[in-house]
Amino acid sequence: MNPAIARLKPYAFTQLGAQEASLRARGVRLLKFGVGDPEDETPAFIREALIAAVTPAGRYPTAAGLPELRGAIAAWISRRYAVTADPEVHILPANGSKEALYNLAPLLLDGPSAGTTPQAVAIPELAYQVYGDSALLHHAEAIPLPLDGDWLPDLNAITPELGARLKLLWLNFPNNPTGKVAPLGYYRDALDLADRYNFYVASDEAYSELWYDRPPPGLLQAAAPRGYHRAVVFNTLSKRSNMTAYRSGFIAGDPELIRVMKNVRPRMGVATPEFIQRAAVAAWEDETHVQAQRARYAERRVLFLDLFRRKGVQVEASEGAFYLWVRVPETAPGRDAQRFAERLIEHGLVVLPGSFFGPRGREYVRLAFVPPLDVCREAVAILDRVL
Amino acid sequence: MNPAIARLKPYAFTQLGAQEASLRARGVRLLKFGVGDPEDETPAFIREALIAAVTPAGRYPTAAGLPELRGAIAAWISRRYAVTADPEVHILPANGSKEALYNLAPLLLDGPSAGTTPQAVAIPELAYQVYGDSALLHHAEAIPLPLDGDWLPDLNAITPELGARLKLLWLNFPNNPTGKVAPLGYYRDALDLADRYNFYVASDEAYSELWYDRPPPGLLQAAAPRGYHRAVVFNTLSKRSNMTAYRSGFIAGDPELIRVMKNVRPRMGVATPEFIQRAAVAAWEDETHVQAQRARYAERRVLFLDLFRRKGVQVEASEGAFYLWVRVPETAPGRDAQRFAERLIEHGLVVLPGSFFGPRGREYVRLAFVPPLDVCREAVAILDRVL
């Protein structure tokens, strides 16, 4: 077997699901603020678009997807970022962004060669597990990029030595788990480095539409004036439109990389059923439901922010996404996230220890305010008692 | 970029689609007997099962899938092959069998090491393109296994030298493109070799339900008495239930490999939407629609067999699947499949030149009798004129 498999950490969410199932089996009622899985309804017009597209006879979907879907994505990018992307040149649909993230490395990596230094993939030291797992499984070295005091991956850590073997830099804003948003200049700096050292910047922007102040910038804005050279963005309808169940997202950026994907991805089995693509067209064409969803999250978020402020608990970063990045209180034993999360779960409140994402998170927990408002109120009441 | 990408052949079906689109744009009406994409309706009860499962709020599906789906697959395997497979130990759902085929190699291959002989994947010399492309992209050497006079991959070609570096042997019966069916003993021989040389036997059984005489044996029957050791089977609803549009299949076999897949596949983004899994449960639980579909194909098949017999054109193998493997008539220039197929397309009839699948197919065309009976009659009339 691939020797990298033995080096994979257990897949966190699979593990967490098993733990929660075991608690529920013991009769514990759990308020689930752990996994970032939206609980609100997929808007009815999107479900209806899917159902209307279930035709009596279907056909193999293609990896390039329906022209209507690529067009709807291009139009959305133009409205959202005020840049122009050509649906035939810069855009591909994804069968959910996770497969697209996972399937990037095998395009860019040569595979290992004994006796030579392995190729490197740079990943923020706190990050979604798939970036690193894909690098490992495809025989690259995953290099954790340290986060600076402001929770931004420190681009200065990309030294000439690392740059020489770096194939790919992963970014993710609004960030999971910290909720941090990056300024436009940060993306520009990353692309400057990419040009200098000849690597790709991959930006996972799954949470781009979950913001509470102003829309965060994205890599496409920084990359458009450069012809999207060395930039690749992944986005999804999962969070924006409560469509985790549908598996639909997009890939946009570097025309040469998109050209290669158009050649390779039909072999990967990643084409999305056309009835889902039709639902996706409807979803990308509408912003009203996204505004409504943002308003729902904003209401829940404020509940927790008020409570933590009242209790003197520090909330850091947490500018976007549906996460709060909460510092474990000084009064908690060892300020240890794992023990603190275990204490909360005894009271029925599930949050993720930040250590889950990397050692740098050991004094933080991630609270995903995805349950409905009444459940958020219950959670606030629990925190009010425990803190 | 991955250097293997430059060595990939164009993806045949993408290329074919472009060629057909260009002919249609010129106003040519094409009868499509090229791609093996079922044209008949997905049974209404399956579509209804999907629609009933589109709930207002959905969740992330899991790679392990719904217990109901694994159970329905296990029950189907038991009915079909009279063997017992444990849904928790031997079975996983696939997001269409193509992704599962593609994603097998990265589990089994180490990746290349400079200066050592590359690991090998053995593939029938005429085969579906994905087996070899996945091997290449994951840095293995794809070794074409010669077909014997009876169109079976010659297992004697697995010499000790090849065996020493062989990680995986691909089989596919009923075969694409030849329609050949293998006897049970052939699978046993393959598993004996796998034990001797320590490789896996992967069997793509996408066409297992399309037969015209008796149900063909499958690898699971040969592997069950061995605890499914070193065997992995891929099947799909695409052909059996006219569900190419849905992307739903399964993986079954070796418990250790399934255990590894349960660990790795959640990271690959291959979970299938639950509404599709619900449709799949309905499909695996019913055989009536499969019998009806077989009858439809049998009726079309006989039309062509009669015509070819009448014209003295040889049809070889062609025991299962919806393919006829037709020898280019002696009278055709150079007995060349490519030129013969081009001549047919000028008359509006699309078939695939066998050379598409490998040099061994250069005197054959593959005719996929997927269009409805009236279109088959038109195609027969064209062949009657041209031959």
Describe the 3D structure.
The structure is a homodimer of 387-residue chains. Chain A has 387 residues and is an alpha/beta fold. In chain A, the strands form 3 sheets. In chain A, strands 2-8-7-6-5-3-4 form a 7-stranded mixed beta sheet, with helices on both faces. The mean pLDDT of chain A is 95. The interface between A and B is large, with 77 and 78 residues.
Secondary structure elements and pairings:
2 copies of one chain form a homodimer.
Chain A: H1 12-25, E1 31-32, H2 44-52, H3 67-81, E2 91-94, H4 97-102, H5 105-108, E3 120-124, H6 129-137, E4 141-145, H7 160-165, E5 166-171, H8 184-197, E6 200-204, H9 219-223, E7 231-236, H10 237-240, E8 249-253, H11 255-264, H12 274-284, H13 288-311, E9 315-316, E10 323-327, H14 337-346, E11 349-350, E12 352-353, E13 364-368, H15 373-386
Parallel strand pairs in A: 1-11, 3-4, 3-5, 5-6, 6-7
Antiparallel strand pairs in A: 2-8, 7-8, 9-10, 10-13, 12-13
Helix pairs in contact in A: 2-12, 3-12, 13-15
